[in-house]
Specification:
The chain is of the alpha/beta class and 94 residues long. 31% of the residues lie in helices and 19% in strands.
């Protein structure tokens, strides 16, 4: 709904469940949808380098930091998108 007419929607990542898309808007706006898995092997090293140099700060997306024992409950929050859970960091030594 937020894409301009004639725009492109890129969906990257791994999708397990169905994704709901308002196809009427896609067709009416003549949108292009591109999909594919993220090529992490290609981008991982350069991204980690930029993070290490302080050029990128990804901490804004981290919503939960939990011990390894709390992992199953945190995964449920992530899966169900409850309590604003976006990204979980597991701390095995806590």
């Amino acid at each position: 709904m937020a894409c301009r007419p004639g725009g492109i929607i890129a969906m990257r990542g791994v999708f397990i469940n169905k994704v709901s898309t308002p196809m009427g808007a896609v067709v009416a706006k003549a949108l292009t949808i591109k999909t594919g898995q993220t090529h992490m092997q290609k981008y991982l090293a350069p991204l980690l380098q930029r993070i290490a140099e302080g050029e990128i700060d990804p901490s804004f997306i981290i919503t939960d930091r939990v011990s390894l024992e709390e992992g199953p409950d945190a995964y449920k929050r992530f899966r169900d998108k409850t309590n604003g859970c976006i990204k979980v960091i597991l701390k095995p030594n806590d």
